[in-house]
Amino acid sequence: MSETPMIQAMVWYRREVYLKLLEIFVDYKLLPTTYDEWLGKAEENKKNAEESGDTVVKVFIEPDSFPAWCKLQGKAPDKEARTEFAIQVVMSKQFGDKT
User: Fold this and answer.
1) Distance (Å, rounded) from C-alpha 55 to C-alpha 65?
2) What is the rounded distance in angstroms from the CA atom of residue 23 to the CA atom of residue 19?
3) Which label site among 17, 25, 77, 81 has the fewest CB atoms less than 10 Å from its CB?
4) 46: part of which helix (H) or strand (E)?
5) pLDDT-derived band at 93, boundaries 50, 70, 90
6) Domain ranges of the chain
């Protein structure tokens, strides 16, 4: 029996802001130092998810708004916050913002 396809919120970055985001993220050392290296890994993860039947929704993290969102949520700008942000964006698009 195969697994039910899911919607995956995938954190995504734009080339022109990648280095600025690395300056913001407290866990920047977890990410590749270059955008091209990050993009290669991200595209591979996206491809694997889609090949398993999931739908991937790219959620772009922006340096002007993400720190403010983190502050509102009481979170450090780290992997956990990026993931939660992406899920929240997809959920609000999928089901409407109920707040």
Assistant:
1) 25
2) 7
3) 17
4) helix 35-51
5) confident
6) 7-95
